[in-house]
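Please produce the structure of this protein holding pyridoxal-5'-phosphate.
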Amino acid sequence: MTFSAAEEFALQMDREDSLRSFRARFEIPTNAAGEALIYFVGNSLGLMPKATRQSVDQELDDWAHFAVDGHFAAATPWYSYHETLRKPAARLVGALPHEVVCMNSLTVNLHLLMATFYRPTKARCKILMEEPAFPSDTYAIRSQMVHHGFDPDQCLVLARPREGEATICQEDIEVILDREGDEIALVLFAGVNFFTGQLFDIAAITAAAQRKGCVVGIDLAHAAGNVPLQLHEWQVDFAAWCSYKYLNAGPGAVAGAYVHERHARNRELPRFAGWWGNDPATRFRMQLEPEFVPVQSADAWQISNPPILAMAPLRTSLAIFDDAGGVAALRQKSVRLTGYFQFLLDRAPSQLFTVITPRESGQRGCQLSILVHEHPKELFEKLEAAGVKTDFREPNVIRAAPTPLYNTFHEVWRCARILAEHS
Ligand SMILES: *Cc1c(COP(=O)(O)O)cnc(C)c1O
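Below is the modeled complex.
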């Protein structure tokens, strides 16, 4: 693809964009003058689809109308409401429907999945993760180690960028696995790193880790809805993601979890149980059949009855992904959009900033992480004042994530112009 820095080129790209109509499906925040902000923080909280209000209203109306009978009489019966999310969520992550369940929030799901898949022994107690990692993942992992009576300082193994580099070499991950794999119980890696935007080779990490007998879990917080995934084919053991970033399901939205079918069908696995993980055939036998019989799907990790009011926005947002043709179609635009951003930033004077996200589109999602050499906070504030929403990560990185569902090439052009004018 040959890009041009001319404004007209960006406008032409927007005219030719087959996904351009999707922007109108979202509420775009505005400044005091009523002008649309350039919203590049869909990696933090995705925009609200206009249809969401109606989908939540529907559940409120059904509750008002039917009360307890809504479990079966609601427009979408609450008893099986979570079933409606299964297939669209499975398509997003490349899983079989019964490998996926939408429930809880991300860190909670990581804990529930670790309760099953992190079973440390003296000989094999370590967890390998990447650095820098999102703090919640580090807290969750370290607390699991303590919970099992192990010392996190001994058990946590970190894959880091090399000296002077920002991103992690695949080769270095494999070196760690070769060296320490026999002592590593679990590899819990991000799909896309939150800080650098690096997309890891999940298939290769999974294969290398499993060769050493490690279980592999992937945190897809910055990958779900952003990059194509094939969890089932890649043999990933388990995964979890949140739905308020690229999935646009709203603040604190209901998260997702995946368990490969070879585990999902296994009734012998230890897990934290609740009635919504029980086989539906006997779920309502209650005191008559008090023994927990896990359903043979990812639903077995579900504990409580699902929050319908919170699931309605997720249902709406997953439908938008299907309407757009799925992640594969969005990814085509995303690669161009972020590639254009990179092209424009490359033209800025090199002393201003360095993009630390990998240059290869196959090694990143839509986010670019821009390391600003001088007065980084000022530049961030300048963007903010100009109506460009990005976020700032101490000490000097601006993260900007143009998303294919609602961002435009012209927005990328305008953002890049402000960045390049910085001095
Ligand atoms: C966003 C994010 C979280 C957030 O966790 P919640 O449980 O949803 O609050 C956790 N981990 C990573 C890697 C994230 O990017």
